[in-house]
Design brief:
It contains 12 helices and 14 strands. It has 370 residues and is an alpha+beta fold. Strands 1-2-10-7-12-5-4-3 form an 8-stranded mixed sheet. Strand 1, helix 4 and strand 2 form a beta-alpha-beta unit. The radius of gyration is 20 Å and the shape is globular.
C-alpha cells in the first residue's frame, strides 16, 4: 500500500470523529449513509479491513468456466424440457452454488419498484430510520441496522440494511415502513412460486423422495433484506459484506446494475456475478448443503461498494422455522457412497450460532459437522 493511500486512511476528514464513530453510525442509527452524507473524504480506520479480507479486482478470475448462462425457469413448466432444466439447476448447485435465473415469474416492473423503494427508505432522515433500530422498532420482525454484527466486528462493513420478516399480510401492513412496504410485499409474493419450484427441483435432484410438506418446512420462513451500500471514498480498503455463506436453504437476490458481488470458487479464486437485467441470482445456503450432505455447495461470497454510485441489493432469505430439524436426508450418503459429514440439529441452534459471531467465511458450518 502506497504512502498516499495510508495517509488517507489516517486522515478521514474534519467531519468524522473516530472516538464517537460507533455511537454515530450504530447506536444513533445514522449508518454508513450518515457517514457518506457528512462529506467524508476518506475511510475511517474502523472500516479499513486487513488486506487479506479486501477484494482485489486484479486477482478476480474469469467466471465463464464456473458460471453458466442464466437458466430459463419457464421451461420447468414444459414436460419436454423439465429434465434438462433440472439438470442445469442441480449441476449449478453442485458446481458453484450460485446461478442466475430468467423467466422466473417476477416482472421487470416489480423488480424496478423494489429497487426504487430501497432508495426511498434509505434516503429518509436518520431519525426516521432510527425508529426501526433493535430496541426501538415497533416490531421484532422489522429491523434497521448497519454492518453485520457491529458489536462483534473489529472492522465494520460498509452497508446499511432493513430486514423485514414476513409473518402475514396484516402484520406487514401495520409494521413494515410505508416507503418500501408495498414494493417489498409485491416482490416477495411474486417470487414465492419460483422459490418453491426451485427448492422442490433441487431436493428432487438429490434422488430422494421429498414430499411437498417437507419442502414447505424448509421454506417456512422468509425474510426480505433491503441492503444499501452508499458511495464509498475508498472501496478498495473495505468490504460491503465480508466473506460468508448464507444460513438459508436458498437465497434469491436482486442486484442493481452496479455489480460488486463476488463468489469464491473452491481452491481457484474469486469470480464476479455480473448483473443481468431482469435476472435474479439464486444461491445455495448452508441448510441445503447440510440436507444434501455436501453435494450442493453453499458458496462463500462477499460484496464491494462503489466509489461512484450508491448500490442496492434485495435478497429474500428462505429458511426453515427454528424448530425444524436439519441434517442429511436419510439414505443420501449411502447412495452417494460417501460418509455422513453433518449431524442432525435444530435450525434454531444453527441460526443462533450464525448470528452470534462476525462473518468468518464458511466457519459457520463447523457447528453442524460430525
Amino acid at each position: 500500500m502506497g504512502a498516499s493511500t495510508k495517509s488517507h486512511e489516517l486522515n478521514p476528514g474534519p467531519l468524522v470523529d473516530e472516538s464517537h464513530l460507533f455511537d454515530f453510525v450504530v447506536k444513533q442509527g445514522n449508518g454508513v449513509k450518515g457517514l457518506a452524507d457528512s462529506g467524508l473524504m476518506s475511510l475511517p480506520r474502523r472500516y479499513v479491513h486487513p488486506p487479506g479480507e479486501r477484494i482485489d479486482r486484479k486477482q478476480v478470475i474469469d467466471a465463464s468456466p464456473y458460471l453458466g448462462a442464466p437458466i430459463d425457469l419457464s421451461m420447468l413448466e414444459e414436460e419436454k424440457n423439465k429434465e434438462k432444466v433440472m439438470r442445469e439447476l442441480c449441476g449449478a448447485a453442485e458446481k458453484l452454488g450460485f446461478f442466475q435465473v430468467v423467466n422466473h415469474g417476477v416482472s421487470l416492473e416489480v423488480l424496478e419498484r423494489v429497487k426504487e423503494a430501497v432508495h426511498s427508505f434509505f434516503n429518509l432522515p436518520p431519525e426516521k430510520k432510527a425508529g426501526y433500530l433493535k430496541g426501538r422498532t415497533p416490531s421484532p420482525n422489522v429491523i434497521y441496522g448497519t454492518s453485520f454484527s457491529p458489536e462483534n466486528e473489529e472492522s465494520l462493513e460498509w452497508k446499511d440494511y432493513l430486514s423485514v420478516r414476513y409473518m402475514n399480510d396484516d402484520e406487514a401492513m401495520q409494521f413494515w415502513p410505508l416507503e418500501c412496504r408495498d414494493a417489498a410485499l409485491e416482490y416477495l409474493k411474486s417470487a414465492n412460486k419460483m422459490i418453491h419450484s426451485v427448492l422442490s427441483t433441487l431436493l428432487q435432484g438429490l434422488g430422494e423422495e421429498v414430499d411437498s410438506s417437507a419442502v414447505n418446512l424448509y421454506e417456512e420462513a422468509k425474510m426480505v433484506n433491503m441492503n444499501f451500500y452508499p458511495i464509498c471514498p475508498n472501496p478498495e480498503l473495505t468490504v460491503g459484506v465480508g466473506r460468508h455463506s448464507d444460513l438459508t436453504a436458498i437465497t434469491v437476490l436482486l442486484q442493481d446494475d452496479i455489480g460488486g458481488l463476488f463468489v469464491k470458487v473452491e481452491d481457484k479464486g474469486w469470480i464476479e456475478i455480473p448483473p443481468v437485467q431482469g435476472a435474479l441470482v439464486v444461491n445455495i445456503g448452508d441448510t441445503l448443503e447440510i440436507l444434501s450432505n455436501g453435494r450442493y455447495k453453499s458458496a462463500e461470497h462477499r460484496v464491494i461498494a462503489s466509489s461512484t454510485k450508491d448500490r442496492v441489493s434485495v435478497p429474500i432469505f428462505v429458511t426453515p422455522g427454528p424448530f425444524t430439524m436439519i441434517g442429511p436426508l436419510p439414505g443420501l450418503a449411502e447412495k452417494d457412497g460417501k460418509p455422513v459429514i453433518y449431524r442432525q440439529l435444530l435450525f434454531g441452534e444453527y441460526q443462533n450460532n450464525f448470528f452470534g459471531a462476525s462473518h468468518q467465511g464458511k466457519k459457520s458450518l463447523d457447528i453442524a459437522k460430525i
